[in-house]
Amino acid sequence: MNSHREKKCEFSEEIIDRKFDAVLSDVYVDSSSHLHRIVEYNEGEGIVRSDLFLIERSGIFFELNVGDRIVKKQGTLNMTVVSSGEQKQYRLDYGCNDLVKTAEMR
């Protein structure tokens, strides 16, 4: 496996281990930082600036809006987005899906 692919797989595994349930306070492309796709949400003690969509490939980022609620359980790449009362299901894709199933089954 090449190092670029290894990094994608490591990031996929990191995301699988995360869980969150947050309402987005900002959604933007950071032009000052290599056009990184950023979401921000309040997490009790302050605003979190998340790298969740940094290398994500499904296109979900471009569906998100301020005020949307994103929910992801630990152990999966499936995500629910609640927007204007409607729920949509997405699967995050970091370019390592062939190895993701093994990580999700742990």
Q: Mind explaining what this structure looks like?
A:
- This protein is of the alpha+beta class and about 110 residues long.
- The chain contains 2 helices and 6 strands; from the N terminus they run αββββββα.
- Strands 3-2-1-4-5-6 form a 6-stranded antiparallel beta sheet, with no helix packed on it.
- About 15% of the residues are buried.
List its salient traits.
106 residues, six-stranded antiparallel beta sheet, 6 strands, alpha+beta, single chain
Describe the structure concisely for a colleague.
The chain is built from 2 helices and 6 strands, in the order αββββββα. The protein has helices at residues 3-17, 97-105; strands at residues 20-30, 36-42, 47-50, 69-72, 78-83, 86-91.
Present the secondary structure layout:
Blueprint: H1 3-17, E1 20-30, E2 36-42, E3 47-50, E4 69-72, E5 78-83, E6 86-91, H2 97-105
Antiparallel strand pairs: 1-2, 1-4, 2-3, 4-5, 5-6
Helix pairs in contact: 1-2
Question: What's the Cα radius of gyration?
Answer: 14 Å
Q: Main sheet: which strands, in order across?
A: 3-2-1-4-5-6
What is the overall silhouette?
globular
Estimate percent helicity: 10-25%
How many E strands? 6
Q: Class by helix and strand content?
A: alpha+beta
Task: Give the number of helices.
Answer: 2
Question: Strand-and-helix sequence, N→C?
Answer: HEEEEEEH
Mean pLDDT: 86
Estimate the strand proportion: 35-45%
Low-confidence stretches: none
